[in-house]
Amino acid sequence: MRTSVNTGAAPVPARAWVVLALGLLAQAAGTVLVSAPVYLIPLLHLDQGLPLAAVGTLTAAPTLGMVLTLVLWGAAADRFGERWVIAGGLGLTAAAAAAAALTAALTDGLLPLGIALFCGGAAAASTNAASGRVVVGWFPRHRRGFAMGVRQMSQPLGVAIAAVSVPPLAATLQTTGVFAVIGALLAVITVACAVGIRNPPRPASAPAHRQVAAAQTNPYRASAFLVRIHAVSVLLVVPQFALATFGMVWLIAGLGWQATAAGLLMGAAQFVGALGRIVIGGVSDRVGERVRVLRWVAIAGVVVMVLLALIGFTHDAIPAGFAIGGIVLVIATVVSVADNGLAFTSVAEAAGSGWAGRALGVQNTGQFIAASAVGPGIGAAITLLGYPLVFGLVALAPLIAIPLIPREDRHG
Questions:
Q1: Residue 278 lies inside a defined structural domain of this protein
Q2: Do 245 and 59 touch, CB atoms closer than 8 A?
Q3: How far is it, in rounded angstroms, from Cα 157 to Cα 30?
Q4: Is 330 a domain residue?
Q5: Alpha-carbon distance 24 to 136, whole Å?
Q6: Which of 41, 47, 117, 375 is the most buried (most CB within 10 A)?
Q7: DSSP label of 205
Q8: Domain range for residue 29?
Q9: Whether 187 contacts 101, CB under 8 Å
Q10: Does residue 249 lie in a domain region?
Q11: Global pTM?
């Protein structure tokens, strides 16, 4: 059973674009909170002297919270619809941001702040599962790659906003001000989502017993397609979060960039990466196959991580090495985020409308488990081995992913 009421070349209703825009804003706002600790690293590690591994653990707190609730939010979207799951979850995220601001004002310890960020990530997970499900429900297959690419802009867009805004806010308002501003942003978008989002219409032509049967069919029993896509996504998220977490610190500590310039560059990289997701989604619509394009992205991921490692080893010996390193980092960041929309669309299409929320929850859970390990794991590895060698080791993740990518798409 298809997840959209439109088939073939049917036009996309205007409401679909409104829902898409609000879903993008919702997840982008949640991503700003989840990403903010990354861009507090210069303040906490370089200025305040906290160990990199400890600060890396703080950056993993919100993603760990997401891991524990993604499937639950997806099941809630399958059962109750997307509108109130997104709006309600975003409201809880705003409350967690306010709690983070309060704890930062009252104590210098990382544990209370980490707990608040953990709760914020747990609440922000609502937008990850439900916003993807609502997009697939509103758009026909021939526009889903593009639409999901737009929706998947939300993550790099949120990271870009955090990269550009958090360092200057931290310099002037400290940690408390950072999370107070984020909480206000989340509150405004919560109201917009509650007013503007509508659940997608469901097919009315099929007999009721067929719809119930389809909703109860477990797509994981039909084939290994979903499991393989989940595994590939876990591997491909390693370079994405490694660069998002430590790319800015490498520019500052490894290449000598100023913090503000490094933040602007990382923000630009995330913005270009967001646009790249749209382009890649449109390419998959034109090619007519998600997994083929996903394989191209994985191969490119190996190449750019190896180049980044080489630049890390040789930037002192080549003219303008610090600038070339920044350019290569931008390219690597753009490639590292290009796979998400393809994988999300593949998962939602293979799962079908009755299982899309849960399958997207599982998809996100695997990714954020990996992301939670990236902060402390990569931080400790960099301390022992240095940035260039670790970047080279990270290239192994997309290399392993390539043979796991299925040969053809599957549709629920």
A1: yes
A2: yes
A3: 11
A4: yes
A5: 13
A6: 117
A7: S
A8: 14-200+218-404
A9: no
A10: yes
A11: 0.69
Q: Do 44 and 50 form a contact (C-beta atoms < 8 A)?
A: yes
Count of C-beta atoms within a 10 Å radius of residue 221:
6
Total domains in the fold of the chain = 1
Residue range 381-401, pLDDT digits in tens:
988 998 889 999 999 999 999
By CB atoms closer than 10 A (0-12, 13-18, 19+), residue 109 is: exposed
- C-alpha span between 235 and 241 (Å, rounded): 11
Nearest to 22 by CA among 190, 271, 200: 190
Q: What are phi and psi of 81, to 5 degrees?
A: 100, 165
Question: Is residue 58 assigned to a domain?
Answer: yes
* CATH number for the domain harbouring residue 347: 1.20.1250.20
> Do 65 and 121 contact (CB within 8 A), yes or no?
yes
Residue pLDDT, tens place only, 79-89: 777 788 888 89
**Residue 80 tokens, joined:** 């109750």
- Other CB atoms within 10 Å distance of the CB of residue 373: 15
CB of 290 closer than 8 Å to CB of 407:
no
3-state helix, strand, coil in the chain (%, to 5): 85, 0, 15
